[in-house]
């Protein structure tokens, strides 16, 4: 499968450890066959009362082979597992490197629990590809061929019996297992992903479920998902057990065949009786190396299914730039130009933006207003290359965003989105996300500017900021943006949860800091827009009005009507 090409590439990068593990496994396999063969030969020789030195040599050989087998098996485990863990590390790094630029598109398309199952479970499943899929056939071929050559020196018929056993264990048993495995292909993984999804949603929505009395119903769904997963795992385990049982049956049948064939050859005078126990012990031992072949189809299907899910995750939402590499300068204000931009979310019946054109000059202040769903927030996503327009072009400083390194855009922008994430830690930890050096005095100063003067830098922040109010989250998000040195401000409803007085104080400091920068503000409130150089009014993905505050009020169009409605609502609240 094409999905496993990345695994093959990762294996090639660990070829030294892989070669050493194969060498160690081959020596361990041959040493094991030789050990038990020598033990059988030693037991047979004792019947004939051989000279003492013969017994000493055979006993010493058995001990040396035991030590060799243990040491080589240890080396095989060491190098094979080191190669596996190194490959997993490369795969995780590669997967995350592809995954991160695709957010939030992936989060909008995949449920978070399912995405978590792919990130953790599917990547983890790929560790079996080398150990359980690629490695066993190599060992079977090498050890069996060496054993067959050894056995043929005593009897070609017994050697042919070994070949027959190798073919059955290498092809027939795995084929039977594969036929049954295809019937349950991927169901365990899908059930595990389903359970992970349900658990994640219950944890995220616990309070709402409790308030609306739906917690018991969701708990029942979790129980059903858990039971379904347990049932599928039981069926899969039983299927693997049947494969192992068939392998054990073939092993004993071949050993009995060797015993019967050997007895016949001894009676016919074609084989010395002293070698019979040796050949029987060799047959019992050599099939140990083929035991992994019985479960190989299950692990192969599992690895392919996991690789396919990971590939689907990063390919279905791929929005990478075709020629990245250009950098957006951060030492001066940025110009923004949208030309005929059209964008439609996947699965939506209408476009979020339709043939939109907009020009924002360097150092200017622009506000975008309009009803919910008019496409305002989508503009910021497109500017940050979080999404790719279906048509049209977006230019920053005259350079298409397709030609810019997205990291340079993020570095040049001071961004506050509608929903800002906060990590478990302290206020200081969440303010220093940009990785820049700031003193405690600078941090406390910016907290004062956003009207949080009594907040300590050591105050705890829960996961997702659960212990913070919406207003505190917005002010902390503004503080993070004000600590950055970018010359492009992208603000999406940054003060929607603040009262009017607090909003005026915070925005006053922000406008002062961004006096010579390019500022793009998305808002629903129309108060305070008198300071804007340009106001863009949007509706249903289109620009319907553009101008300064005074110009739009004089036109008495859509913006004027919105302003009149706002004044009326404020008057009613005041009354």
Automatic annotation (TrEMBL):
GO terms for biological process: cell redox homeostasis; glutathione transmembrane transport. One of its GO terms (cellular component) is plasma membrane. Residues 19-288 form the ABC transmembrane type-1 domain. Pfam families: ABC_membrane, ABC_tran. SMART domains: AAA (SM00382). This is Thiol reductant ABC exporter subunit CydC. PROSITE patterns: ABC_TM1F (PS50929), ABC_TRANSPORTER_2 (PS50893).
């Amino acid at each position: 499968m094409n999905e496993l090409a990345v695994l093959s590439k990762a294996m090639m990068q660990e070829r030294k450890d892989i070669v050493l593990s194969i060498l160690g496994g081959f020596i361990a396999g041959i040493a094991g066959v030789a050990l038990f063969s020598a033990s059988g030969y030693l037991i047979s020789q004792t019947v004939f009362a051989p000279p003492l030195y013969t017994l000493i040599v055979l006993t010493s050989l058995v001990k040396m082979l035991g030590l060799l087998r243990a040491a080589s098996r240890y080396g095989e485990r060491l190098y094979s597992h080191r190669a596996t863990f190194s490959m997993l590390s490369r795969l995780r790094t590669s997967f995350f490197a592809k995954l991160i630029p695709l957010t939030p598109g992936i989060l909008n398309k995949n449920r978070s629990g399912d995405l978590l199952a792919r990130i953790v479970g599917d990547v983890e499943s790929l560790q079996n590809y080398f150990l359980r899929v690629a490695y066993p056939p190599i060992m079977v071929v090498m050890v069996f061929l060496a054993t067959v050559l050894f056995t043929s020196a005593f009897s070609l018929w017994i050697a042919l019996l070994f070949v027959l056993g190798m073919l059955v264990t290498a092809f027939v048993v795995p084929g039977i297992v594969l036929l049954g495995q295809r019937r349950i292909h991927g169901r365990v993984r899908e059930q595990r992903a389903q359970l992970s999804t349900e658990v994640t949603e219950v944890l995220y929505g616990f309070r709402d479920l409790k308030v609306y009395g739906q917690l018991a119903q969701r708990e029942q769904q979790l129980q059903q998902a858990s039971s379904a997963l347990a049932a599928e795992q039981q069926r899969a385990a039983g299927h693997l057990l049947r494969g192992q049982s068939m392998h054990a049956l073939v092993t004993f049948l071949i050993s009995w065949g060797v015993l019967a064939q050997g007895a016949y050859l001894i009676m016919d005078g074609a084989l010395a009786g002293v070698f019979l126990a040796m050949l029987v012990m060799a047959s019992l031992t050599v099939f140990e190396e083929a035991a992994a072949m019985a479960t190989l189809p299950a692990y192969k299907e599992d690895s392919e299914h996991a690789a396919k899910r990971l590939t689907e995750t990063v390919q279905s939402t791929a929005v990478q730039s075709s020629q990245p590499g250009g950098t957006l300068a951060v030492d001066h204000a940025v110009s923004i130009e949208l030309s005929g931009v059209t964008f439609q979310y996947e699965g939506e019946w209408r476009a979020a933006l339709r043939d939109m054109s907009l020009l924002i000059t360097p150092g200017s202040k622009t506000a975008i207003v309009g009803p919910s769903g008019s496409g305002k927030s989508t503009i910021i996503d497109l500017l940050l290359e979080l999404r790719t327009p279906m048509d049209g072009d977006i230019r920053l400083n005259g350079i298409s965003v397709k030609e810019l390194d997205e990291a340079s855009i993020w570095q040049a922008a001071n961004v506050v989105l509608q929903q800002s994430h906060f990590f478990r830690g302290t206020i200081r930890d969440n303010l220093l996300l940009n990785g820049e050096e700031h003193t405690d005095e600078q941090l406390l100063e910016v907290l004062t500017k956003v009207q949080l003067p009594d907040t300590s830098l050591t105050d705890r922040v829960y996961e997702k900021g659960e212990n913070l109010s919406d207003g505190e989250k917005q002010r902390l998000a503004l503080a993070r943006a004000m600590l950055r040195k970018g010359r492009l401000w992208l603000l999406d409803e940054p003060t929607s949860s603040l009262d009017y007085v607090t909003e005026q104080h915070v925005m006053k400091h922000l406008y002062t800091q961004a006096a010579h920068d390019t500022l793009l503000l998305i808002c629903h409130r129309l108060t305070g827009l008198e300071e804007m150089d340009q106001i863009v009014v949007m509706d249903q993905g289109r620009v319907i009005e553009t101008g300064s505050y005074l110009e739009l009020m004089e036109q008495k169009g859509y913006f004027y009507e919105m302003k009149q409605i706002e004044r009326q609502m404020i008057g009613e609240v005041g009354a």
